[in-house]
Structure formats: structure tokens, C-alpha cells
Amino acid sequence: MRYPNCIFDLYGTLVDIHTDENKPELWSRMAQWYRERGACYTPEELQQAYQRCVRQREQGTNVLRKDAHEAHPEIQLEYVFQELFQEKGVDASIAMAAEAGGQFREASIDYIRLYDGAAELLNALRANGQGVHLLSNAQRIFTECELRMLGIETLFDSIYLSSDYGCKKPDRRFFELPLKENGIRPEDAVMIGNDGVCDIQGAKALGIATVYIHSNISPDEPMPEADYVLEKMDLARVREILMQK
User: Fold this and answer.
1) Confidence tier at 67 by pLDDT (50, 70, 90)
2) Cβ(231)–Cβ(48) below 8 Å
3) C-beta separation of 155 from 122 below 8 A
4) Long-range contacts, 97-101 (Cβ 8 Å, 24+)
5) 3-class DSSP state for residue 3?
6) 127-143 b/e with 16+ CB inside 10 Å = b?
7) Residue 6, SS3?
8) Which of 106, 82, 76, 111 is closest to 94 using CA atoms?
9) What are residue 11's phi and psi, to 5 degrees?
């Protein structure tokens, strides 16, 4: 087969999502949640403290792009939520901080759903004997439960989320993870994504074939020079490309 191993981006490629981390109701809800656990913030104070803590943890990191649907994937946000407790003198466990992250994500999401045909595509590739891997700029405390909720957590042979590794696409170190850990040669893999820089340029730098999908949440950028360019979301066409002999 032409592509024995398929490496997928998640948000904007398989999953359609819209979040808003600036809406007042999010910060009112989070301030109440923290207050009930002994950390008293006003909504405005909490938002400012959160943004400050994120900026501080990002210092010295190679931040290429911040997308509204992928919040600061090069750091681990659970430590930000824990720090917000500590600033008010509350000794919160990392489990409590992760729970805060779950509350935050739930309140920030306007919608989340699979693109039409996403699960069918993954199942078809696996049934065809092709490796299916996920490489996503994402926070584990957000994405792990979302994969489970969407019913696709078990449809990947391996899952790599950038918050676990301290680097993100297009960093070659992140792309090398699924290759090295699964014994995949670059010429035996294809990257499928909706971001011309993070997904396409990053994969091409390692000699991995590329399929670009311009989805509703793709960055505003020129069409990249991928092996295949789809100008709109069409996972049926992606299936044809990936399963060709």
C-alpha cells in the first residue's frame, strides 16, 4: 500500500471545535468554582492571574502560533490551575488542578463534534491494516476526555499530545516521536492536517508525505505545498487518497 502509516492532526482535521476563553460567563463560573474551594477571586482578577501565569510559563519556549482551539500546548496547564490555588494560599493537589482544567474547558467550549466521516475513516484504515496515529498540539487534561467523549480514543495505534512532551508541531522532535516509537520510516508515513505550517511544513521537513485539508478552523494562510491539497473538508476524499494502492 502507498501509505502504511497515517498520522493525523486532531482539531480542525478530525474534530470541529470552537472555544472562547474570553467570555465573561467562563470567568464568572471559574471564579465561583475556585471560591467554593477556598481561593477567592473576582472573575476579572482570575482571568488576569491565569493569563499572567501562562505568560510566565511560556517564557523561554518557542511559541510559534497560538490558536483559539489549542490553548498553549507547549506547557502543562494543570500547573497553571494549581498555581492559581497557591496564589490564594490553598494547597491544591495536581488532581484538583486537573479538575479545574476540566471545568475551564467545559465552560470555554461553544461546540465540539466530529467532522462527517471521521470515525468511519479511522476504522477503515485500521481494517485495511494501516497504522493510525494521532499527533496533536493539545493539552492532555482537555483532549483525553474529549477523545473518549467523541468515541475515537481507541481508534488510534498511538496518541501523542504536545503537553506531555514540552514541544509541539512543527518541532521535528515532536514529529519524530511516532516515527521512533513505532519503528516507522518517514517514507512509509503520511501526515494529514489543516495547518500549513504546523502540520505540512513540519512533516515535509522530515520527508513525510502530506495531505492538507483547508477546514473551517484552518489558519488564515496561503495554501501550502502539500502532496495533496483539499480546499474544503472532505474526509471521503481523504479516505480515497490514503487507501490507494
Assistant:
1) very low
2) no
3) yes
4) 98/141, 100/30, 100/33, 100/34, 101/77, 101/139, 101/141, 101/142
5) coil
6) eeebbbbbbbbbbbbbb
7) strand
8) 82
9) -75, 125
pTM for the whole structure = 0.90
- Residue 15: phi and psi, rounded to 5, are -120, 130
Task: Name the DSSP letter for residue 201.
Answer: I
Which pairing describes strands 131-136 and 5-8: parallel, antiparallel, or unpaired? parallel
> Where do we find the cell 495505534?
157
**pLDDT band, residue 166 (cuts 50/70/90):** confident
Please give the radius of gyration of the chain, using alpha carbons only, rounded to the nearest integer: 19
pLDDT band at 61 (very low <50, low <70, confident <90, very high): low
Q: Environment class of residue 5 by beta-carbon count within 10 Å: exposed (0-12), middle (13-18) or buried (19+)? A: buried
For residue 202, which amino acid is it? G
The grid coordinates of residue 125 equal 484504515
* Spatial contact of 58 and 75, defined as CB atoms under 8 Å apart: yes
| CA of residue 113 relative to chain centroid, distance | 14
The β-bridge relationship of strands 228-230 and 158-161 is: unpaired
Residue pair 235/116 in contact by the 8 Å Cβ criterion: yes
